[in-house]
Amino acid sequence: xxxxxxxxxxxxxxxxxxxxxxxxxxxxxxxxxxxxxxxxxxxxxxxxxxxxxxxxxxxxxxxxxxxxxxxxxxxxxxxxxxxxxxxxxxxxxxxxxxxxxxxxxxxxxxxxxxxxxxxxxxxxxxxxxxxxxxxxxxxxxxxxxxxxxxxxxxxxxxxxxxxxxxxxxxxxxxxxxxxxxxxxxxxxxxxxxxxxxxxxxxxxxxxxxxxxxxxxxxxxxxxxxxxxxxxxxxxxxxxxxxxxxxxxxxxxxxxxxxxxxxxxxxxxxxxxxxxxxxxxxxxxxxxxxxxxxxxxxxxxxxxxxxxxxxxxxxxxxxxxxxxxxxxxxxxxxxxxxxxxxxxxxxxxxxxxxxxxxxxxxxxxxxxxxxxxxxxxxxxxxxxxxxxxxxxxxxxxxxxxxxxxxxxxxxxxxxxxxxxxxxxxxxxxxxxxxxxxxxxxxxxxxxxxxxxxxxxxxxxx
Length: 460
Fold this sequence. Notes:
Strand order of the largest sheet: 4-12-11-10-9-5-6
Domain HTH gntR-type: 18-86
CATH topology of the largest domain: Aspartate Aminotransferase, domain 2
Strand content: 5-15%
Largest sheet: 7 strands, mixed
Keywords: Aminotransferase, DNA-binding, Pyridoxal phosphate, Transcription, Transcription regulation, Transferase
GO molecular function: DNA binding; DNA-binding transcription factor activity; pyridoxal phosphate binding; transaminase activity
Helix content: 40-55%
Structural class: alpha/beta
Number of domains: 3
Protein name: Aminotransferase class I/II-fold pyridoxal phosphate-dependent enzyme
Distance between the termini: 49 Å
Radius of gyration: 25 Å
Number of helices: 15
Family: In the C-terminal section; belongs to the class-I pyridoxal-phosphate-dependent aminotransferase family.
CATH class of the largest domain: Alpha Beta
CATH architecture of the largest domain: 3-Layer(aba) Sandwich
């Protein structure tokens, strides 16, 4: 291709085709895919391309940056910009095991990150961003937390919000604050592995309370409270991890009433509430003095923020919680807390979350189509709980999937004690590219359709 020629791989930019830099980047990707551009082809200098397309230089710069992010281009210093050779995939693993948000649909995350950090650095005391802060968050961070929790609680008192470095730190601190070594924690038979890890580390015993298709059974909770006098009850009531069950409002009210009668503290870990379609009110709305509520940004926005907001209405519990938290996590990193606050207050967090929600729903539709009758997801959230045919056990399937280059999580990873369901959890967000996710789900579907090979059948 001659530098003076108009690049034949570029479309005429459309007013209604979305951001122009993305139109250019997508045209580059299409041209590489169909062979119009080949590895080693030199691209026009940015100024020349901007003049040819009648756009400003910044648009072309952002387009080239986006194309580099997609591994389409490489810079060679003064020699210019060239189409990159395809990267060799050194690991073929398709990771369906990690519950992370998918890349947001229709949102330029890189630009949002750059803009957010730019605003933080422009408006903040940069020295303060690199210094120690009091645990629990600054006034502005707590106000942002109250704004984040407003869809669940109206407008909570920001003084009752504690800013934590992630939900796992909050759970660990609450175990330290509300229980003593040897105490019992009540949870559902399948529950979040982070709770099990923290309880084991601190010498607490997690005991299962029977659950049905609506979640923990109230009568069984009341009986367990009377028998075990638990230090706390752990609930994950919305799009539960791993079963994807959402408790109906009546069940939430019943559990809250039992906690009040039995004077039991509830930790309501609710990372998926804002991703769910029309979720019921949190359990904390029905027993505000008994329930500590955790909402993390890791599942709705991005794990790298490491920010969670904890609503603790009882001042005595709040002080004990803060003391426990300071013993191992003095503070949230001020820079990421400031970025989270900036995004929440300027509306970026809502836009990002909507993009994550839309992408997650697209991926659920894909999983439903590919897994057909085996799909048992809720249509939103980040994961699917897949019950297996009798000829597979969860551990067998996980090992067989690993040999096929697919990582899934077997039910025993979530088991509170005793036996576990014959199921696996499939996470839909951890594979960035939809095409690779589709390939992984199809490979898994084919694996499910055949019976396991006899042990020792493979010989190499």
